[in-house]
């Protein structure tokens, strides 16, 4: 059931992206200008919503918390992520501001995320498909603070077995739906380049018999908005 819900969420995101790609929407940047009475006047087309599409990639710094009786010696490992996003930005900062410069925004994403965690028995490697949905607050028109849920599907984990504290732990069984919460910040430059940092906290166990949570994931990313 969880797998079906996750696939439905991914399909809905892709369908929305396809529909929005067919619609002419004022993105709030790069509008043509005309000269009127010696002054430059920005033309607007009646929309206070800017919708942009983007791609992003970056570094994951990941760790796991342990609620089991033995200590696996977990420490932070390095991975990466890559994916696509849609950025919705509402309103105008002032009456003369461009559309899409207001206080509120929303940013759903679809990401492939590779996360590695070091342990006494070797590296644990996790491959995810993730759908974060970030509510964004813009204290400045280009700077946003973001928070929201992060829905994940763990595609695979390796190695199959890991020897920890004289016990063979079956890591390969860790698959399925996970969810957590992310919080971060991003800066969007006028010409499309964006940078961001996010901290996500996992709230579900990695496996039925493993009381491990991937609850420390620091993401540093760069991207481009179209």
Automatic annotation (TrEMBL):
<dbReference type="Pfam" id="PF13568">
    <property type="entry name" value="OMP_b-brl_2"/>
</dbReference>
<feature type="signal peptide">
    <location>
        <begin position="1"/>
        <end position="21"/>
    </location>
</feature>
<feature type="domain" description="Outer membrane protein beta-barrel">
    <location>
        <begin position="50"/>
        <end position="206"/>
    </location>
</feature>
<protein>
    <submittedName>
        <fullName>PorT family protein</fullName>
    </submittedName>
</protein>
<keyword id="KW-0732">Signal</keyword>
<dbReference type="InterPro" id="IPR025665">
    <property type="entry name" value="Beta-barrel_OMP_2"/>
</dbReference>
């Amino acid at each position: 059931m969880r797998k079906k819900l996750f696939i439905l969420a991914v399909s809905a995101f892709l369908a929305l992206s396809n529909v929005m790609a067919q619609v002419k929407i004022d993105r709030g940047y790069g509008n043509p200008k005309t000269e009127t009475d010696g002054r430059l006047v920005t033309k607007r087309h009646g929309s206070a919503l800017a919708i942009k599409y983007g791609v992003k990639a970056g570094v994951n710094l990941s760790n796991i918390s342990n609620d089991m009786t033995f200590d696996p010696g977990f420490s932070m490992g390095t991975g990466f992520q890559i994916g696509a996003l849609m950025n919705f930005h509402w309103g105008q900062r002032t009456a003369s501001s461009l559309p899409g410069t207001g206080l509120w925004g929303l940013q759903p994403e679809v990401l492939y995320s590779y996360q590695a965690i070091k342990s006494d028995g070797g590296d644990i490697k996790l491959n995810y498909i993730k759908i974060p949905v970030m509510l964004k607050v813009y204290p400045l028109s280009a700077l946003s603070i973001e928070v929201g849920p992060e829905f994940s599907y763990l595609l695979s984990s390796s190695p199959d077995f890991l020897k920890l504290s004289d016990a063979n732990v079956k890591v390969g069984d860790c698959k399925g739906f996970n969810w957590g919460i992310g919080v971060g910040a991003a800066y969007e430059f006028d010409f499309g380049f964006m940078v961001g940092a996010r901290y996500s906290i996992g709230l579900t166990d990695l496996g039925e018999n493993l009381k491990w949570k991937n609850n420390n994931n620091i993401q540093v990313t760069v991207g481009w908005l179209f």
